[in-house]
Amino acid sequence: MAPLFEELLFRGLFFGYLRRYGRLFAILMSALFFALMHANVFQFFLALFLGIVLADIRDRYGIHCSILLHLINNLFAILANHFSEEGFLSILYPLVLLIGAVVLIVSLVRSFAPFLRELKAEQSFHCCISRFFTTIPVDLMILVFLGLAALNLN
User: What's the whole-model pTM score?
Assistant: First the structure.
């Protein structure tokens, strides 16, 4: 249930609203709030990365694909946590991580030049960032998420 709600909120509502300011801006800001919402300092960068990937997939292929990928990610995390001491998953987990790392590296290398071209094309990116972070609702939401993360440390 959480992946469905999170996708509808962050990739549906937030991303959909922010998309008018540019693709990269919408991807990065929806991913940032997705990571902050998890309120866990130790998982922040993983959630940020996952948020970027899911927002890109949502933009390219539709929200149904990002929902499916989020469900698969959470299912795999639950299974890996539950069966971490089992023989089969103790072999499968590092293999899946290795395959994922290779796919990630290849994807990053292939998409780096187009990413730079897209960033240059979105001339208003820096303007959007500065306006976005100087609005009271956004600042309050960031403070709430950071407060939750601080409480989660204890």
Answer: 0.72
